Fold each of these.
Amino acid sequence: MKKIIIALDGPAASGKSTTARLVSRQLGYIYVDTGAMYRAVTLLFQEKAVRPADVTENQVRLLLSETPVSLKIVDSVQHVFLGSRDVSEEIRSASVTAAVSEVAAIPSVRKEMVRLQQAMGKEKGLVMDGRDIGTVVFPDAEMKVFMIADPEARAHRRKLELEAKGQTVDFDTLLKEIKHRDHLDSTRDDSPLRQAEDAITLDTSHLTLDQQVAWIINKAKFFAEGSPDRLQKIN
Ligand code: CDP
Ligand code: CDP
């Protein structure tokens, strides 16, 4: 099968990263979680007491050249680094989650992250998930999927995920947080969350993880063949 780029975009907790990880494993592709990169920049801002509202383009460039964000695969799992420090756990904290959309709205931050993301796609054979992969990072990706799910289903999933980690968070609080982040991500000026015209929608509200992985793998085979007639038929 020819190697392609699979762009997975969609709102928070629609299942992108879990699905992307499984799809990449089955196809022998690299998986890139771009949300983790914006989370790492957010953690860096917090540690250096940088206020997103005041930061200049030069400061961003300097900060990220002193402490670069990078991704490395450790035991088949993507880890995120700030400089030489593995921050994969820390970037999932509630305080990073609450601040990330504001940091991700800063054009100079996006410029730096998109540059890194595009460099990772040079060889193809990549599943990348985020908010602007099909629209901005890889507008020519062979396959674009826009994953959605009811906000309630998404909040429920996040709750289960946190409970599995031993954290208890109220359902309504999670629902509010998810809706608020989606609003910020969809209304920002630079690269807002939106479906690319040539993306296919995958509503995961009533699907199992296995079903959505199989759905993507199945379609990826057609996209790799690149026949426009076939693409019309499966859309
Ligand atoms: O996994 P979760 O849905 O909580 O979010 P994430 O994928 O880790 O992304 C965290 C945040 O990073 C999003 O809410 C966006 O503000 C930002 N993001 C972005 O702006 N562009 C991307 N390509 C990926 C994430
Ligand atoms: O990356 P994104 O924020 O879009 O979602 P995620 O971090 O993959 O979180 C989705 C959560 O929902 C994970 O715990 C999945 O196991 C779970 N889930 C799913 O992704 N798809 C389903 N059909 C059912 C549950």
Amino acid sequence: MQLRTKRATSLSGHVTVPGDKSITHRALLLGSLGDGPSRIEGYLHGEDCRATAGCLAELGIDIERQGQSTILVRGRGLNGWSAPARPLDCVRSGTAMRLMAGLLSGQRFPSELTGNDQLLARPMDRVILPLRAMGARIRGARDDRLPPLLIEGSPLAGARHLLPVASAQVKSSLLLAGLYAEGRTEVVEPGPSRDHTERMLEACGVTVHSQDLAHTLDGPVQSLQPLDVHVPGDFSSAAYLCVAALLVPGSEVVIENVGTNRTRTGLLDLLREMGADIAEENAHLEGGEPVADLLVRHSSLKGISIGGEVVPRAIDEFPILALAATQATGETHVRDARELRVKETDRIGTTVTALRALGAEIAPTPDGFDIIGPTPLVGTLVDSHDDHRLGMTIAVAGLVANGETIVLGAERIADSYPGFAGTMASLGAEVRP
Ligand code: S3P
């Protein structure tokens, strides 16, 4: 599928974005293990979360859709999953695979986690090795770096893990395994990664002690309370609307009810440092997560240097940040972001290729990129490499490029942001199939 976008004159309006992908995955998983039905409102009907729901169905969990965006997950308790008859297909979702690896390691049955070619190329040693240190019988079907993952299910014991990279998927996998482990599981991160698992475990009645970058949980946990959650709008989806409004002259856009958890909003800090006018209004807590409306006005941006602790807090936003930097005055340098190389695509490589095709001055480095701006962009046909975040970045670039921009592989946008094109169009952008 292709998406065609044209230069926009101004964007305006009040919109919402679909529910948070990370929180939806966690609500599905923890809800399925709760003692009774969990109600999830604002659930994301994206392809990635559909993969997690599909795996849970294989594990005997009943998920009932109630209206537009509410689902009921009929939890059957911490030991209520039943042995799957076939490999569990995580499709493209790294979050599904890594979080489920932790949970499946402590079950009393064997299982296999698999996915499509894109996921089968993503590193899994980062969960295999620490899970094994807890007694898990888990290995890669080909070697220990890559999926499919073969898991026997075995008794687990708590362990102390010093993570080499700040990864919420790895941290979560280990804490979730810790629910089944005898004794204390401790995960120490090198930097702050998203903390939705810790918050949702607390909502289920499990105490997770977090001090600075160390998180501990005492197991085995006897039961999880069912959830009644309202999933906030996904900040990572709002990011595309924010940057679109900042770049298109005359724009003023309000994005309502967006999750503003600090472990996710590194992009806000970076854009403000670049000179962005973004206000947070109606800030409040919803189901243990901070939420606010974002008021974004067109702004002149300047280049900045990026590295250190903000990087994991903005890890999914570097393609769209790079686009913003191509329109900023001066140089932007991104460092410490080597993790981008192992996302759905090598996002250093694919971001550079896509933005260069549009005329940007951007060069890769081993752990980031260097960008010189502002550069006029010229619309053309650009491949999203089957990466949802790249697809949306190219579409937003088309709003400031001369001529027509065509996004190739735009169907992947539905992995995290179904309805993206419709929302852009409602703000006044010309975005159509
Ligand atoms: C996610 C964590 C991040 C992020 C991904 C979702 C999660 O990955 O890139 O899109 O839901 O825990 P890492 O934890 O590997 O950095």
Amino acid sequence: MEIPPDTRLVALVGDPVAHSLSPRMQAAAFQARGLRWAYLALRVRSQDLREAVAGLRALGFAGANVTIPHKVAVCELVDELDPSARRCGAANTLVFDRGRRVVAFNTDVAGFARALAEHGVAAGGVNAVVLGAGGAARAACAALGQLGSRRVTVMARRPQAAEALCAQMRGEFPGTAFQALPFDPGALEAALRQAELVVNATPVGMHPHEQESPVPDAAWLRAGQVVFDMVYNPPRTRLVRMAEQAGARVVGGLSMLVHQGAAAFELWTGVEAPVEAMKQAVGLLPAEV
Ligand code: NAP
């Protein structure tokens, strides 16, 4: 396939990246808006992240998405953090200013909030549990803080990561009570039984580990609860199926994927994102014939 010299380039930087739907979704968005842009998925190991960011800037890329496991580490490698990234300590979108400055944004926060709104879920005043303490968990916590959740319990297998996340969020969102708990079965069951909103911000259940679920027992979930699984590949994860079995309302990761991608598209191009075309590209809406 020929890529003409005046093509503007955007990269996805992560490890792994093979599962990502972002290349398909962003290519559809560029095409829908008639832009000569291309989006490349690049597998970058943690030890190479610094050189990768510098290299993309030097090569004249217009921007990048940053995904698992680099969203926190990349914040140390940029010239400027937009408040969206600074407030949650993680970034998923970089804008390269014509080879000069690198500015980091977090569009996962807005993507998470828009996905909740699209499903009619009001997070104000709720008691939420967030599983994981990485980049995606930081975005969920910042969104829940912004939306005025009453309590957010962060559960992670590394207690110090959960505590560090909560310490930052307490400073940013004093109206929300953030607490860190260990990701062990006893604490998990007790927290889930009290939660109105459960967010999976771990990769557990993601391809090729579709048989796994961060929640071991569907009986720990219930009707009336909202379960938000950020994992989108497969679209119906084991956790989503367990939540449906328990009668809970489900928000799948594809909705957030589209909305965070739409916000990133607008930062790179300055053009309104074609959200319908992006939904079609990831299978959330039937494709036009
Ligand atoms: P990350 O920064 O690597 O963080 C992952 C978190 O999950 C860490 O706290 C990690 O704990 C924990 N974890 C990993 N494996 C676990 C396991 N087996 N049991 C318990 N905890 C485990 O990754 P991320 O960027 O936050 O992404 C997390 C997931 O969210 C990925 O599947 C990603 O694709 C998805 N995501 C989706 C969207 C969307 O738009 N739908 C947006 C962002 C992220 P340790 O630190 O102990 O390893």
Amino acid sequence: MCSVMFLTGLLLFVSCAVVDALDNGLALKPTMGWLHWERFMCNVDCDKNPDNCISERLYMQMADVMVKEGWKEAGYEYVCIDDCWPSHQRDAQGRLQADPKRFPGGIKKLADYIHSKGLKLGIYSDIGKYTCAGYPGSLGYYETDALTFADWGVDLLKFDGCNMDRALVGEAYVNMSKALNTTGRSILYSCEWPLYEWPLRQPNYTAIRETCNHWRNFQDVYDSWSSIKSILDWTASHQDIIVPAAGPGGWNDPDMLVIGNFGLSHDQQESQMALWAIMAAPLLMSNDLRDICPRSKDLLQNRRIIDISQDSLGKQGYRTAKMNGYEVWERPLSQNRLAIAVMNRQEIGGPRQFTIRAAPGWKICYPKCSITQILPQYKDMGIQAPDSNIVVTVNPSGTALLTLTPISSSFERMHKRVWQDISIKDKRNTFL
Ligand code: GLA
């Protein structure tokens, strides 16, 4: 169904294309929280490494810090367990059970603790017989596991797709979605359906959106700039397929934020934060919140970037230009605003200056708009007109992030006229 509320051609196009989301009332905005995998992986040796092993202590400590250090206030809500939490054996009733040594209180008690902090708990399982790391998967136990998670008070399930015939991946994800729904508990459903189906065929994003609250499309994120770039490149090259699927209730998931770890320079961390906000991606940090440098913390808690991520219009942004070693990405925001990210992909030399005048988003400044630069530093760029030259300085592998806010109602008329009936591809060309 198309809505007349949407003003631009793009939004009209997207709103027509977006199908019904999974009807569980969750993920109306991209999920925010913390997920253990990238930083802590499958470290189960609590004797040697008690502070960094997959144990109830880790999640309790993260929850404590999330409350004390402003993370919860900034919007980060879910504390999520990934692989390697269960015992290798199910219990006598066939239920999954947490490893008793590492989770002596069990998951229900951990969920109570997390809830007592005003946070939510996520857990992990797999569509197949085993998880990717070889722990028991849910195959043959979807109803049992969904009921167990509901009984424990779990709020999110990340359901992995290892160890399964690729032809059966879609059916498996649908079955678990139904099982979760049948429990009557609101459990946010995080899938990896398209990631596991792409090698076989193009996934059905209409069905995925009806089934999952977010879905991984591409490989696991690593703590490296090459990993971030590969995710962005994949996203841009598939944006015509995946962007229309995103919206309130269901989001493309480019994987965790690795900001605050070891592999990204500060400019690269800013690029990840800016682009994850533009992509309307879940903001699931995988880092050690107990020990994070103040600059990374400030970046992850930057309210202006989080506002872009959580914008109520709920449209995913997309790449509109790639030239001279730059990429320009745009995300339409509520109240006819626009976010623009200019990424300097040239990894040689120093800071470079980019003039935004020719950008399509600039047309929305007719007759005038106000511009705010958010990254690399906050700057009120004042009221601008279409013939203004807006110059941003961008470090190698860094990103300048801006928002454009129209300041006249005649904007709407112009915006509508210029943008209606222009496809994403045409808009892309207006840059070149
Ligand atoms: C897969 C997933 C990762 C993580 C690991 C755990 O690789 O894509 O996000 O959950 O499994 O084994």
